[in-house]
Structure to design on (183 residues):
């Protein structure tokens, strides 16, 4: 993290262990693994990051041909017939990642599992799958100038109010037709 003066501060951020740097408080908000997909069409490439929010999303240029993304799995096993079956347990990391997709080309749908590095084509659109990458979401908290002083002032006001309530006898002043009286 670099502050306004150009000083660099480094450290480690973990869940429930924030880092303080340059007047900021940095929290690890979330972490995960995202897939990588490059879509090529008409000489243009666009790199996409695929997260859990993108599952069941349809990627297309013409709304007819394209790819439906169903998820990224950390590993798979091969059956006796050569078919792959995804494994959901990600406790060992993404050792042999595999993508679950449906390719739609000219009205024909093909369901399958795709390894990173493979390219699928539908209606002139190429979908190239890359190695997944781990990510962290960092939450940055800032404190406005003067907020700490305001907090101290409100605490002092609270203590003063409690002191008045507990250590001073209330005084009543009655104003009536006969004048003012203090009780």
């Amino acid at each position: 993290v670099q502050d306004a003066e150009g000083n660099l501060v480094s450290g480690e951020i973990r869940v429930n262990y924030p880092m303080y740097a340059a007047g900021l408080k940095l929290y690890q908000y979330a972490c995960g693994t995202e897939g990588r997909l490059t879509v090529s069409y008409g000489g243009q490439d666009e790199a996409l990051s695929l997260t859990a929010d993108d599952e069941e999303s349809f990627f297309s240029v013409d709304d007819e041909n394209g790819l439906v993304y169903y998820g990224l799995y950390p590993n798979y096993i091969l059956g006796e017939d050569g078919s792959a079956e995804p494994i959901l347990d990600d406790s060992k990391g993404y050792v042999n990642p595999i993508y679950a997709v449906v390719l739609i080309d000219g009205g024909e749908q093909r369901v399958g599992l795709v390894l990173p590095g493979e390219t699928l084509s539908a209606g002139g659109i190429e979908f190239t799958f890359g190695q997944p990458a781990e990510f962290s979401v960092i939450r940055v908290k800032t404190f406005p100038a003067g907020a700490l002083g305001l907090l101290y002032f409100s605490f002092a006001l609270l203590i003063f109010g409690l002191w008045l309530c507990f250590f001073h006898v209330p005084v009543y002043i009655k104003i009536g037709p006969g004048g003012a009286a203090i009780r």
Notes: The helical segments are 147-167.
